[in-house]
Fold this protein.
Amino acid sequence: MRRIRILGHRLRSLFFRSRREDELAREIDLHVNQLVKELMADGMREAEARTEARRQFGPAEVMKEECRDMRRVGLWDDLFRDIRFALRMFRKSPGFTLAAVITLALGIGANTAIFQLFDAVRLRTLPVPRPEELVMIRINGEGRMGNFRGRNSAVTNAIWEEFQRRQRSFAGVIAFGDTLLNLAPSGELRNVEGLWVSGSFFSVLGVRPQLGRLISTGDDHPGCGWPGVVISHAFWQREFGSDPNVLSRTLPIDGQSVPILGVTQPEFFGVELGRRFDVAMPICSAPSADLKNRMHFFLNLMARLKPEVPQRVARAELLTLSRGVFEATVPPYSPRDQARFTQLQFDLADGAAGQAGFRDGSEPLTFVLGMVSFVLLLACANLASMMLARATAREHEFAVRASLGASRWRIVRQVLVENLLLAFAGASAGAAAAPAVAGMLMRMLSTSREKYFLPLEFDMRLLAYTFFLGATATLLFGLAPSLRAGRMATRGASASREKFIFRRALLVVQVALCMVLLTAALLFSRSFHNLLSTELGFQPSGVLVVNTFFDSRHYAPESRLPAIEELHRRLSAIPGASLVARGYVIPISGSSWDRGARANLADQPRATNLTSVSDDYFRVMNTPLLTGRTFNSGDRPNTTPVAIVNQAFAKRFFDGKNPVGKMFWLDSVDEKDPPLQIVGLVANAKYDSIAEEFGPIAYFAASQERTPRLTVRYLIRSTASPDSLINPVKQVIAGFDPRLHIRFVVLQTQIEESVSGRRVLAALTSAFGLLGAMIALTGVFGVTAYIVARRYREFGVRLALGATSSGIVRLVLSELATVLLAGVLLGGTFALAAGRIASTLLYGVQPHDAPTFLLVIALLGVGGFTAGLIPALRASRVPPVEALRVE
Amino acid sequence: MPKPSDLLQGTLDLLILKTIARQPLHGWGIAKRIQVLSGDVLAVGQGSLYPALHRLEQQGWISAEWKDSDLGRSAKFYVLTREGRKQLDRELQSWHRLSSAMQLLIENA
């Protein structure tokens, strides 16, 4: 009760301050008047009585101030006054204020944006109830072979069903798989992110519908066909404009109109970090051949722990479960491989954040978070020296305030409040810009094929982080100037000799940080450039890839090859298409195909990459044939199986000798498959990624395939830009078979997009480097100009005593050189350490690359001296007489 | 004029609380009463009364209200709260303890 009354008093004191002041004044007035009356009654004259009354009462203003102190509103009062004063100071120097706020906004905004990504990738849990109960089911051991579809290709449908039936340890288990779902009835593909889900998926996760209902266990039974799909909130907004009647609409999938059962709650994006599903479909709707195929791996498993069963116990139970599940689901492998398969074991991993494949590629983000914190540090060091200079310029003001009774602490507080306000403004601007920056970075990472998504919400934790940054920044850049202001105030406006040591130390820090940032920028830019200019072994520019998808319902196995070759002929006839070839696996496309191979049946098999291509493939790709021949029309399904290999293949399997005419065997289920005869040797080419070493590749003749594949990729070398071929190709295909699904890929774009992560890294570090250089160079300019201004008189005296102008310039610059040198030494050490951490992210350049370091040093030297030259020249032109008159 | 005795802050609080315990008084009245009752020995440095009043009000031990006064104008009258009465008891007790201890010390010294 008493506390409430006290609080009430304080609040009244705070908000009705003027009334309280009034009352106090009236009270004192009454008292003094009463004294006067008494004194006059004793016979004093009025004027005399007044003087005496005031004397007896004591200094009224001091009493009032004491009363204010008693009311304990002084602190708040002062704070409001400090803020008003600070705002007035800012209005007086808008340029300075703007510069400071922009510097801070850039530093804090960049940090918040990167942290937002980092937070989303590393720290967040799935937006479902009790995410800490979720676990990923992993499989330890090797022995799975077959088709692996999508990013979640851990288990087959058989393993999932067996696992679900046998497990007892969990409150619920779910299976899911990703697929690109085509929503176009014919023609060019319109892909959306499809998600296969078990019937238990939504209920075990605890996802609620926004509209309609979600897929349940009742929907997911063998032979269910297409009972319906559930769409994501984002897809509902994007594709249906948030139509409230969406439940009466359908989606064209697989030649059918599939009903939409419901829409998920807005925050649910799926269980895969970095991705967002569009359409969820029950697993039973997948092609029945895939569901029955025990070599078709396309699902991933998750489970929710029972609250009372600890993870350790669940893991032990999983281990005992493994043998039975894998024995019951063994694929039709060779006996040796089947034995390996049954040795597989289930294991648990933390699943609160969902399936986090995206996280594995996120080490660069940690590095970038480090770099961006350097930018903020640099900005703070810069601001600190700006603030110090400002404090010195306000020396007079502080001294006056001190002599009027302001305590040292009072002045320190005033300056701290100014700095806090600056930090607050900077942090607000930075926080406002951060989500846009983070979103832009995500778009830069996404490619035409791979759309990444992260739930980037600006919430309390991010706000807290921003404020933490702002407060830290204030301490870093604001404390020293504030203390200095306080010191100056108590010592009085002294003309004492400054040593400038602290300022120079700040400059050394700025140069060092700038050096680290610039080195990182150059190393990553060079890595990216190296990647793009790497010898690929083929020439991607000018090549358009046309993916075509033949439907088995329309093309029986024996009619496929003629159809494929007929389309091939028609595409070749397009004006502007200089050459057309077919290839099954397109290099650096994300797909791959590999097998064990051996040159002698007695050898241990070793892995080689595979693809199947048509006659002109090597000419379209400009991969030189070294010896032997390419494929020709004589290579048919009934002739000897032939292959062309690359140099790395010859090296691995034939000790680098000419392999033409030799035989090799591929690992297969059927050991009786005939060997392949090598008819040609081609130059090395990249297969999976630009950054890889050249590996062995064996090329088969597409014309020899007994049952040609349904997915056929035509590569067209264009005489003009590849894009100009897209419309003519569409027309040709419309004339050939309008039901055919197609997808276009510009090979050069695909290859550039394969390194989009590196591009973002290079762009980010370059931006940081540029920002860092700008800040550091203004720092060099500012500090040199400040020192010159403070030593105005000294230079005047020197000149008067016969120093030459160039001597003065040399003096200023040599002092600057010491600072730059110290900065470069310190920065070089940091940069070497940072480079070592980042060495795995570099390509074709060493972290201690001497030319890079020399270039950075040269840049810093030239930039630093240029920035220092203007103040140095001013120092050399000080008119001696005027300089002496200054003080 | 002799310097007014330096009153310990706590003592001034005690005096004020005790003074208004009997009846509500305004600042002038409190000052006068202390002066009269102490036989002008404790001539409170009159202005210093007000910070003390503010402090006590802030502590919630006294409350104030503007009323017509004997001075011909309305004045701010201070009155003891329930908390203030308890505080007065506490302060009186500790004062008695202190003074009897002092008494003992001085007599036996």
Residues 1-6 of chain B have pLDDT under 50 and may be disordered. The beta strands of chain B are 25-26, 62-68, 74-80.
